[in-house]
Amino acid sequence: MCNASLFIALGCSAPLGFIVKNLFPFLVLLVFLGFHLSIYFFFIKQVIKSKIVLNVLKTFLVFNFLGIVLYLSRHYFIDFPQNLFFLVSLSIGVGFVLFVVMLLYQFLSLVLRLIGILFPKFSQERRRFFQNSLNLASGILALGYFGAGLVEGRLAPKVEFLSIPLKGLKGKMTAAQISDLHIGRLIEENVVRKIVEQTNALKPDFIVLTGDIVDTEVSKVPKAIEALAQLKAPLGVYFILGNHEYFHSIKPLMQALKSHGIVVLENACVQLQKGETKINLAGVYDLFGRRINALEPNLEETLKSRIPQSPLILLAHQPKFAFEVKEEHHVDLILSGHTHGGQIFPFSLLVKLEHPYLKGLYQHSKNTQIYVNRGTGFWGPPMRFLTRAEITYFEFVEA
């Protein structure tokens, strides 16, 4: 048996597995059950007048919710064919899109009712016309919203180019960042290979993988790991844990990555050198480790082996770790992921409440900047909206 402080290091999954594989899926189901009931009573039932069409859509919602049940079952409990998993994963996207459209529909319907109260001369006929127009527009919006999300979700990651001055840097060094790839489930070898080719084509000096790269047991995705191992950079490829890696056996994953030449930064700092150009590259465990008292981030320990005269780049999966970085730590740049940039707008507005650094470059403090990658893959439905996947290319130059 493995206790809570040792199960990750030993590759066991009992304590956290119980939480993730039992509690989390049921919480998600409760949320989406609420979504579906709201969609039916506050949107579909108010828009559709035909009983036949209403029954058809009611049946559709029931099957869509069952699709979410199957998605979570396959994600945490059972296994079934990939094609079926792709179809049921769409159920989450459908539920979210319809819920957002329902909220917008209710808001605009309220506006129409207020207009009728404030302006009594606004005829009943006109109000009926605008209400019918709203009903039609809402249906079109839902279809367009869902379709656009699918299209954007299937696009190749966009390469974002940034030039960032670093104090104390002599010369120039380049890097590429991949984050939140979520290998497993819907991200397989073919997708990984294309991303690797796209990244290698940039010819960076070094590559960083900032967590949530593998989101399943590593034994299930050997070909995808082999494809990932084809990442090439003269100064190396560096990996840190994200919260999703904690949901599976971490020790076998880290061993697999190390066996392929990928450096796993475990509260560690290494020095990168290209001619006279030197950079400290540090990486910490994810904040999720503190929930289970294992593999916890320790910034003080991480920075002990730094070279004081050279700039320091810190890899930390969750951007809110930046609030633990103080001026005395002398961290020049933090590279993070985790947020997916919200993945599907307007979910990004909720994510920003938890993570003020949502996507892009921010000035965290006087001497520290943070860059948050939007994610190179996706989680849940194969969809994105107004937050395209990205690979980031950095050019670090003298300040």
Topology of this protein?
Layout: H1 14-47, H2 51-76, H3 82-118, H4 124-154, E1 158-166, E2 173-178, H5 189-200, E3 206-210, H6 222-228, E4 237-240, H7 250-259, E5 263-264, E6 268-274, E7 277-283, H8 289-292, H9 299-302, E8 312-315, E9 333-336, H10 347-354, E10 360-363, E11 369-372, E12 390-398
Parallel strand pairs: 1-12, 2-3, 3-4, 4-5, 7-8, 8-9, 9-11
Antiparallel strand pairs: 2-12, 6-7, 10-11
Structure description:
This protein has 399 residues and is α/β, with parallel strands linked by helices. The chain is built from ten helices and twelve strands. The protein has helices at 14-47, 51-76, 82-118, 124-154, 189-200, 222-228, 250-259, 289-292, 299-302, 347-354; strands spanning 158-166, 173-178, 206-210, 237-240, 263-264, 268-274, 277-283, 312-315, 333-336, 360-363, 369-372, 390-398. A six-stranded mixed beta sheet has the order 1-12-2-3-4-5, covered by helices on one side. It has a six-stranded mixed beta sheet with strand order 6-7-8-9-11-10, with no helix packed on it. Strand 6 and strand 7 form a beta hairpin. Helix 1 packs antiparallel against helix 2 (51-76), helix 1 (14-47) packs across helix 3 and helix 5 packs parallel to helix 6 (222-228). The longest helix has 37 residues, at 82-118.
